[in-house]
Design brief:
By secondary structure, the protein is an alpha+beta fold. Helices cover about 35% and strands about 25% of the residues. The chain contains 5 helices and 10 strands, in the order ββααβββββββαααβ. Helix 1 packs antiparallel against helix 2.
């Protein structure tokens, strides 16, 4: 995951996952991060950045590797969020009431398809809402019998702790996942980023 300051005041938000384990996967992720920072700094739009990264990563990821990525540009003052999802587990936009919104618009994973294209979408991060970026090790955490936590349960944990602030809420999510799985260990990589827009008084 990363946070990127843009010249116009927006903040770039990214969370990504790479197939495989160990040193080869780590090298691909390091390459991806460096390429991403360079292309975000170029001022290109999100679909174009995704297409460029896909082309550059195809040689790095072959024959079986790929990168999933969620990339967004956030305007802190207005809450305007433009994003593209490159095959990543959809982040959740959680409000105090109502269903959580899954941010899935985009395209396929990066590093596989030569002629792929990506779309983007704009949503609003409203006061009182939290944006939940995570890897599949969070929502797909399993009980011994195989039942997954799932996006709905994750959203409910977040909703119940919206008034506690992002830092405390992150700890609550970790505790809830451990309670659900009845183990302190995580079966898969566990990355969680919460972006809170505080309600005005």
């Amino acid at each position: 995951y990363d946070f990127l300051r843009l010249p116009d005041g927006r903040v770039g938000l990214v969370i990504a996952d790479v197939s495989g384990k160990g040193v080869p996967a780590a090298l691909i992720m390091a390459t991806f991060r460096a390429l991403l920072r360079a292309h975000v700094a170029s001022g290109a739009g999100l679909p174009e950045i995704a297409a460029r990264l896909n082309g550059l990563l195809r040689d790095e990821c072959r024959p079986h590797g790929f990168v999933t990525c969620f990339l967004a540009f956030l305007e802190p003052t207005t809450g305007r969020l433009e994003y593209t999802n490159c095959g990543h587990v959809p982040p959740l936009l959680v409000a105090p009431e109502g269903d959580a919104v899954e941010l899935a618009e985009g395209g396929p994973v990066l590093g596989v398809f030569a002629d792929a294209a990506w779309g983007s979408r704009e949503v609003a991060l409203e006061p009182g809402q939290v944006l939940v970026l995570h890897t599949d090790g969070v929502s797909e955490a399993r009980r011994a019998e195989g039942e997954e936590l799932g996006a709905a349960r994750l959203a409910e944990v977040v909703r119940e702790g919206l008034d506690r602030g992002a830092a405390s809420l992150a700890g609550e999510v970790v505790r809830a996942v451990r309670a659900f799985t009845a183990t302190e260990a995580f079966e898969d990589d566990f990355t969680l980023v919460l972006v809170e827009r505080r309600a005005t008084s």
